[in-house]
Amino acid sequence: MADQSSNEPPVPIAGKLEPSVDSKVVDIAVRLGVLGLFAYFSLQLIAPFFLFLLWAVVLTVALYPAFVWLAARLGGRKVPAAILITLLCLAIVIGPVTVLVVSLVDTLQGWYHAIADGSLKLPALPDKLAGLPLVGQKIAELWQLAGQGMEQVFTKIGPTLAPVGGRILSALAALSGSVLFFIVSIILSGCLFVPAPTLAKGAKRFADRIIAPRGAEFVDLAGATIRNVSRGVIGVAVIQGLLTGSILLLFQVPLAGVLTFIALFLCIIQIGPALVIVPTIIWAWSTWEFVPALAFTVLMVPVMLIDNLLKPILMSRGLKVPMLIILIGVLGGTIAYGLIGLFLGPVVLAVFYELVIAWVKAGEGLEKHGSRQ
Question: Is residue 183 located within the same domain as residue 217?
């Protein structure tokens, strides 16, 4: 009887046959295949704009509190507030950022050509340093030895650099193109301020479908991490870097673009710009007259210490992301995406780290709750 019943056709339900297990599996596979195909082609279409959209979302999340504050001051008018914030960001990028990037590219191109033909040499030691009591002569001797050694090194590596010159120049061209990337991302970010609440609700609903019932919590955590890292780490570093670069350009310090980039990098990894500013101040006092050296020092010292004032203001809570995560994000982002990755890398990696930690803790909480029952 059992064997006969197993071979009976499906029982009709409401005039229809109940689908078999195999037909259900085939139906699900076809649906997933069609959905995956559409998802693949959609991602292919979005891929060229992904980094633009990602940075635009980061900017929107980071600057949204400022947008709300400005909109309230303008009588609740959101569109003018979004336009003003966008114009301010564009002014910063098109102004000092463009000048610093151009200075950096020109300096690196000059170094490349000088190393390639073996003509790069150390500059002459300032007379004030050579004339220092007790240590001046030693400094002059070490400087001369270093100059001779560097000249031999540059002469040897010059022919080696020639074959890879195309890659170096293309990397420098990409560095210049980063300015255009920031401009486009800022414009996209300006378009996201007004619909941001609706987009946030949609993101939470989508997250709930994937990791219910805590999807909305993870979205909130991601937003808080973006604001914390982008304002407390990237924002403070950008402010210090721009101030440092502006003062270097104002006083016409050589290698201003390179020094600014190094200071920015050190600020993002939480070391601070002192390793750049202090030697530059020493060089200024050994090279310039008293008044310009004093003015340069008076302007640079506050810039070196301003992060101690800005971080408590811009960070809504203590930064829980380890500095190693920030450093890996900076290095990996810079290697993978150049100047763009310098800013995006630590933000994305910090968000991923926080979400993984929250997901692990949520799982541990469920296990403890189940064991108690």
Answer: no
Matching residue, tokens 């979400």: 355
Which of 192, 227, 255 corresponds to the end of one domain? 192
Give 346-355 pLDDT, tens digit per residue.
888 888 888 8
Whole-angstrom CA distances from 262 to 27, 232, 258 are 57, 19, 6
What total number of domains does the chain contain?
A: 2
Cβ atoms within 10 Å, residue 11: 7
Q: How long a stretch of residues is the chain?
A: 373
Indicate if 154 and 299 belong to the same structural domain. Answer: no
Domain that holds residue 288: 213-363
CB atoms near residue 96 (< 10 Å):
17
Mean pLDDT for the stretch of residues 78-106: 85
332 and 242 both lie in a single domain: yes
On average, the pLDDT of the chain sits at 79
Cα within 13 Å of Cα(285), Cβ side: 10
Q: Are residues 244 and 342 in the same domain?
A: yes
Are 168 and 36 spatial neighbours (Cβ–Cβ below 8 Å)? no
Q: What is the pLDDT of residues 281-309, one digit of tens each?
A: 988 888 888 899 999 999 999 999 888 88
CA-closest candidate to residue 153, choices 185, 122, 125: 122
Say if CB 370 and CB 363 are below 8 A apart.
no
Is 309 inside a domain boundary?
yes
Q: What is the pLDDT of residue 24?
A: 76
CA distance 207 to 226: 17
The gap from C-alpha 46 to its chain's centroid, in whole angstroms, comes to 20
> Nearest-5° angle of CA 84, CA 88, CA 90?
115
In a domain, 45, yes or no: yes
Looking at the fold, whether 157 and 305 belong to one and the same domain comes out as no
Mean pLDDT for 86-104 is 83
pLDDT 10s digits, 122-154: 666 666 666 667 666 777 766 665 555 555 555
Q: Is residue 203 part of a domain?
A: no
Residue 14 resides in a domain: no
Q: Per the structure block, which two tokens stand in for 336?
A: 């993978």
Separation between Cα atoms, residue 29 and residue 26, nearest integer Å: 5
Tell me whether the omega of the peptide bond preceding residue 19 falls within 30 degrees of 0, making it cis: no
